[in-house]
């Protein structure tokens, strides 16, 4: 029997152990600089904590948690107007308004934890179960009852470790897949990508590029982001508000803070038409991986100029030209991302309701509210 890990919960980056970044070398989203972004500009309904896991007083694991208070949201998303949406809203307001996430709800993929080679994966997962209990006590003392605890976005190969760590009493769910774009080593430029496309999808590429004539793409620095902050937020909020489902909205200063702290690792591109900012997208360099982040656009111009599709092509082009190995396009808009070459990776999460009776129906309600998405996978390289 292995000795349980010692758990420490931190409220701020200033409290973190000096050697924290030593375990975050392969994931920028666990680094002190990124955690400082959350500390300074997390969504208003999100409470972040940072978790240290120790073995014999040595830091062997680091993790992040986020508590979402859905009572503070004016809307979960306004795209769908139907009975199911109304049921969902009541369900979340009454039974699931306080959700504790072990992981990062602002990204897709395993950004929950990192650990040293002194421990095994199931040990850190077991430690995170204990951390979740400590966090629930912390929130209880503040008058907040955690309704649901969830561990999000793990690949299939992690399922065995969850079983070893004793998660059999949790509901295992599978959200929409993570869309991944693998870049072959022999691609050195965007032209290699274009040549690899089949005729149908090469024609799609040419059509999109032609539609975007007159649109100017600009790499924006910190001063640019500050100057256009109001417009940027309006463009972001329009897209976010019309999403299928939202559990948070970004703070207005979020992109500014991100650029200030992550500097060249955070890329912000604005799209201008006749001198007016009509859209933007953001990218984050994470080692050899490029993570796509939030974007925004004027919907009327987006349709006319095929702006979203052109943004996807631009992300692919930049990542190839700069030698990245993979692009994480995250979930949503699965079919259009598939049409440019991204492939779905099935992801898993584990969840448990704090109320034993609610926990019995939790799986059925989840499956009702989040049925499997029917979409057609494309292969633009055949």
How would you characterize the overall build of this protein?
This protein is an alpha+beta fold and 382 residues long. Helices cover 37% and strands 26% of the residues. The chain has 2 domains: 6-176 and 346-369, 3-Layer(aba) Sandwich (Aminopeptidase); 179-344, Gcn5-related N-acetyltransferase (GNAT) (Aminopeptidase, 3-Layer(aba) Sandwich). It is built from 13 helices and 15 strands. It is globular. The model has no long low-confidence stretch (mean pLDDT 92).
How would you concisely characterize the structure shown here?
With about 375 residues, this protein is an alpha+beta fold.
Overview features:
Aminopeptidase, seven-stranded mixed sheet, 382 residues, single chain, 2 domains, alpha+beta, globular
Strand content: 25-35%
Number of domains: 2
Q: Specify the biggest β-sheet.
A: 8 strands, mixed
Mean pLDDT: 92
Secondary structure: helix percent: 25-40%
Architecture of the largest domain, according to CATH?
A: 3-Layer(aba) Sandwich
Task: Report how far the terminal alpha carbons are from each other.
Answer: 52 Å
- The CATH topology assignment of the largest domain is Aminopeptidase
CATH hierarchy, class of the largest domain: Alpha Beta
Structural class, by secondary structure, is alpha+beta
Shape by Cα distribution: globular
Number of helices: 13
Low-confidence stretches: none
Q: Number of DSSP strands?
A: 15
**Helix and strand element order:** EHEEHEEHEHEEHHEHHHEEEHHEHEEH
If you compute it from the alpha carbons, what radius of gyration comes out, rounded to the nearest whole angstrom? 21 Å
User: What is the assigned CATH homologous superfamily of the largest domain?
Assistant: Gcn5-related N-acetyltransferase (GNAT)
């Amino acid at each position: 029997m292995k000795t349980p890990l010692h758990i420490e919960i931190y409220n701020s980056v200033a409290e973190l152990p000096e050697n924290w970044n030593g375990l975050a070398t392969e994931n920028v989203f666990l680094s002190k600089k990124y955690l400082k972004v959350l500390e300074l500009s997390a969504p208003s309904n999100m409470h972040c904590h940072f978790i240290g896991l120790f073995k014999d007083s040595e830091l062997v694991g680091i993790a992040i948690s986020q508590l979402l208070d859905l009572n503070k949201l004016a809307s979960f998303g306004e795209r769908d107007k139907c009975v199911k949406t109304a049921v969902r809203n009541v369900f979340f307001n009454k039974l699931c308004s306080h959700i504790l996430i072990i992981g990062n709800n602002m990204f897709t993929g395993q950004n929950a934890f990192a650990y040293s080679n002194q421990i095994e994966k199931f040990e850190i997962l077991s430690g995170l179960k204990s951390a979740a209990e400590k966090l629930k006590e912390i929130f209880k003392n503040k008058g907040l009852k955690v309704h649901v605890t969830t561990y999000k976005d793990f690949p299939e190969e992690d399922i065995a470790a969850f079983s070893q760590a004793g998660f059999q009493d949790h509901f295992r769910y599978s959200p929409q897949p993570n869309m991944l774009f693998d870049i072959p080593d022999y691609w050195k430029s965007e032209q290699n990508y274009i040549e690899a496309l089949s005729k149908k999808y090469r024609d799609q590429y040419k059509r999109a590029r032609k539609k975007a004539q007159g649109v100017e793409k600009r790499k924006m620095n910190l001063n640019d982001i500050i100057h256009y902050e109001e417009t940027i937020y309006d463009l972001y909020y329009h897209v976010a508000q019309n999403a299928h489902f939202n559990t948070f909205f970004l703070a207005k200063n979020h992109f500014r803070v991100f650029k200030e702290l992550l500097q060249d690792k955070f890329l912000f591109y604005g799209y201008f038409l006749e001198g007016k900012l009509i859209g933007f997208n953001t990218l984050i360099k994470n080692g050899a991986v490029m993570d796509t982040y939030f974007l925004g656009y004027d919907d009327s111009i987006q349709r006319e100029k095929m702006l979203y599709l052109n943004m996807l092509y631009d992300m692919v082009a930049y990542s190839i030209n700069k030698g990245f190995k993979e692009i994480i396009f995250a979930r949503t808009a699965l079919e259009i991302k598939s049409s440019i070459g991204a492939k779905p990776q099935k992801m898993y999460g584990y969840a448990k309701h704090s109320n034993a009776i609610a926990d019995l129906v939790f799986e059925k309600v989840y499956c009702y509210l989040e049925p499997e998405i029917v979409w057609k996978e494309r292969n633009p390289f055949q």
